[in-house]
Structures are given as C-alpha cells and as structure tokens.
Known about the structure:
This protein is mainly beta. It has one domain: Lipocalin. 12% of the residues lie in helices and 50% in strands. The chain is built from three helices and 17 strands. A ten-stranded antiparallel β-barrel has the order 1-7-8-9-10-11-12-15-16-17. The chain has a three-stranded antiparallel sheet with strand order 3-5-6, with no helix packed on it. Strands 2-4 form a two-stranded antiparallel sheet. The longest helix is centred in the N-terminal third of the chain and has 22 residues, at 38-59. The protein is elongated and about 75 Å long.
Amino acid sequence: MRNMKKKLLLAVLALAFSVPSFAQTDIAELLKLYKDAQSDVTVLAKEYMRPFGEEFGKTLNTGWYTSAKPHKLGGFDITFSATAIPVSSSMKSFDLSKLELKELGHAAGATTPTVLGKDEDGATVFLKKLPSQTMKLPQGANIPVMPMVNYNIAVGLPFHTDVSVRFIPKISIGDDGKFGLWGIGLRNEFKEFIPVFKLLPFNMSAFWGMTKYNLSWDMANNSYADPNYSDQKLSTDATSYTARLLVSKSIPVLTVYGGIGYNSSSSNYKLKGHYQYNGIAVNGGNDPFNLDYTSTGMMFNAGLRVKLAVFMLFGDYTYAGTSMYTAGLGFTFR
C-alpha cells in the first residue's frame, strides 16, 4: 500500500500535476469493518479526505491573469504557473470524539491523521458490539503543501474582451493512472464603455473562469479488490468557478494587479467497482465510497508582473479562506 502511494506521488510530481490524490489508496483499508459499520466507516473516510476535498479546488482558480487589461484583437499570451497552499496544523488531523460514531468505538481523546497529516499509523477503532474486531485508520501522506500547476493561452477578441483556455487531454500517469483538465476564462474591460470610469488612471475588468479536473487510478491490484471483477478504480473530480473584479496599473516593465470576488468549488472522490473482505462482498460488491465536498466564499489577490519585451515573470498572493502563493512565467504580445 505504501509503495503504491509513493509510486503515484512520484509520477504526479514528475508530471507537475496534483499531489495529494495518491493518498486516497489508503481509503481501501477502511473496508475491513465496512460490512458491520457502513455509516461510521463512510464518516471516517470523508473526514480523512476533507482538507484536500475542501481546499484543493481553490488552486484551480489561480493563475488566470497577470493584468486587468485584456489583449487587443489578435493579441495573445501563454503563461505557466504553479500554486501552493501551505498545509496548516488544522488540516493534518481530526478528532474522533467530535464525530457522531454509532457502531464504532475508540480510545478517549483519539486524534488521527488526515490525508495531509503525518506519515504515521492512525488511531485504532473497534466494533462496539464486538470489541475484538478492530481497524487501524489510514496514515497521512505528510504533505507540507498542496500544489497545482496551470497553463493558459489567452487571445484578444473585439470589444475590450479576451478569452483564456487551459487544457490537458487525458494522459497516462505511470502504468495505472489517468489525468485530465480543461478550463475557460473571460475578461472584459467594462470601464471603457462607461464615460466616468473610462477616465480612471488604471485598468478595471470583470473576469469569470471555470476549471474541471479529473484523476483516476486503477485499483484492480488492491488487496480488497474482488478477483472476479476488474472494475476497481479511484476517481477524483473537481469543478471550480470564480467571478472577480480586476484592477491593475502598469508602468514601464512593472504591472501591479489584483482581484476581488467569489470562489466556488466542488470535489467528488469515489472508490468504484467491486470489493470484498474475507470473501464477503462490500456494499453489495459495488462502489463503497462516494464522498462529496464543497467550498465557497470571497477571495482577493494581489500580485506583481515584470515584463521584458515579450517575456514576463509574475507572482501573487491569494486569500480565499486559505493562503495561496502563485508564481509563473510566460510570453505576451499586444
């Protein structure tokens, strides 16, 4: 199990994609007591993945812009950026005593790692009706930051508008994983159509963006997979939206930019297929976990871009309930 996690981590890092998804493989360990405590085991799985489920989607809303000024008609830019969310202590563990577990018991005051927590054994839980039946909760992945890499291509349209796209077709990660991503963004400098606003000594635009992400991992070789089937997979889907008011001011070489608005993201983590424990089918033998998360709220960001001819470097800070740091480079024309 640990080798599988390390294998996926290295593959994802090597391709500069999302890191924390690899630790989902440990969710399969919760199937041990699934038959006797389905609702409790599902609660534990959801708490284990919660910090990643609620925070990762926010990174999909970063890296969209380095200015409030849209490209002129036919102008374009290509940017590459990396965003990191530092993992706080509150994201690394959860307290079992705060959960309403009905069929499972645990030691008093027990805390256990989340998917982002320490790489150490989790707490032990047991069946209340049969205390000799125990289960050790999953380890954490000991991840200090949640990273995401994005690239955009933006093209200027008429009426002070441009469109941005980001797209990674479904590609293989190692032997068993597949990853894909796509997104679209629109930016319009509406102040150019309002006489009073048009006189303002800085650029001001409205922006809207959406990104969809999918990562799947073949689980047919997992020790809990039903050997009579080959449909076992982990599937991670995330969709993020953002709407913002952008402002920027440029002087030779330098551009200061920022945005304020609203973020919304939803994530889904599924353990699909047929599984068994001690020869007994889990959940009727099909799709034992389906975990959903949402995260919404206001955000703001501020950044700086350095432009030399057509080449640029940029970095910004975003706060959306969590701090995020983005840095990147790119090429721009008109």
